[in-house]
Design goal:
The chain has 447 residues and is of the alpha+beta class. Helices cover 48% and strands 19% of the residues. The chain is built from 17 helices and 9 strands. The strands form 2 sheets. Strands 3, 4, 5, 6, 7, 8 and 9 form a 7-stranded antiparallel sheet that branches. Strands 1-2 form a two-stranded antiparallel ribbon. β4 (157-165) and β5 (173-181) form a beta hairpin. α10 packs antiparallel against α11. The radius of gyration is 27 Å and the shape is globular. The protein binds (R)-mevalonate.
Length: 447
Amino acid sequence: MKSPIKGFSKLTQQGKIEWLVNEVFDGDQSVINTLKSYLHQDEKVQKLHNEFIENTITNYYLPLGVAPNFLIDGKLHTLPMAIEESSVVAAAAKAAQFWLKRGGFKTTIVGTEKIGHVHFMYRGDGNKLKAFFEENKNHLKDATDDITANMQARGGGITAISLVDKTSDMADYYQLDVRFQTCDSMGANFINSCLERLAETLTQTIESDNRFTQTEKQVQIVMRILSNYTPNCLVRAEVRCPIEDLSEEEGVSPHEFAEKFYRAVRIAEIEPYRATTHNKGIFNGIDAVVIATGNDFRAVEAAGHTHASKSGQYRSLTHCEIENGIFRFWIETPMAVGVVGGLTGLHPMVKLAHRMLGNPSAPELMGIIAASGLAQNFAALRALVTSGIQKGHMKMHLLNILNQLEATEEEKQLFVNYFKDKVVSHNAVVRKFCEMRDIPYSSMVKK
Ligand code: MEV
């Protein structure tokens, strides 16, 4: 068994790579070349990347694609999309093109409120705590003034603090529930700093209040942390058109298409197995723009999934309605993203992504990202209820196999033509490849 290492983080980048190669890759020196080939040639840029996280040994690339023709609230956008999955960018672009001719995407910001909690244990008279809280609410808030001053100057800050009695769920458990506006930033650091100060002030103020008994004064702070569930930081994006304007799809009439599409969305509203895949497709679109713009896709996803479960059952984030001959399709999802702070001012590609979008405000970015999710879902459902999803995927799948086989450009073209009307499977492609190169199939099976 290999032995653990002490002080790994103190090694230089070179030292970390050497340790990894020797201890994990059994001294395989080719690993060094692979790792080094992904380092940025500009040392300054590499230094930036090194410092984004800890123990950096190289960079990990994702392709950055663009999806043009997104008409969102009357503005034409080209969306930056960082994603590894084939067909996602093409699907977004296709959906954008479709809705471009039908009025585009309309977005609504339902709210921009963020939430954080001080979770604490208080053993004693709950009414005494409630009275104390009402008396000291302003004092608690004032204690964060030095942290919130800049945010307040920009129109944000703490908007409300309340005491929540959770003792019916767990003995002695209370929360300070704190509401924030964080303007153009996602606000995680700001919120957590405020919560830490609030917790400290809460314990100190109770400690110095002689109306509390010694036991009551022993408030135990369990955690001070923002919630990634942001039900009031919510965005809607919508597309609509008369049914007749939905073009004929793969031999399916606009009315039949609208009906099947509506049913597909209803299935995702009532059936968690389908809802999970349906929402996964939505996050193909959402995450790609969230990542490209340097935002936290785990936070956006976590909130989206909680929102999707708010009825007690996991459901679709998109909805469809057909009324008076009008087809309406929309998404409603939480979206805590920022355009300042974090990576946004540091990462050269992130800065470029924001420029590509015309340097939007945080609420504008919320709308753009929601439109990307809606477009992705529209494209997926459009394919699913007509020709099926595989048709579009197959060319990329074929090219991926051919790249693995190190096929030439000329060979690739031949294969694309050959497989136009055939099912692409790994086996079928490899067999055809062997036949064409006149090499035994058995020699390729390991490749
Ligand atoms: C694949 O990444 C996403 C889809 O499965 C989404 C869906 O089924 O709606 C195509």
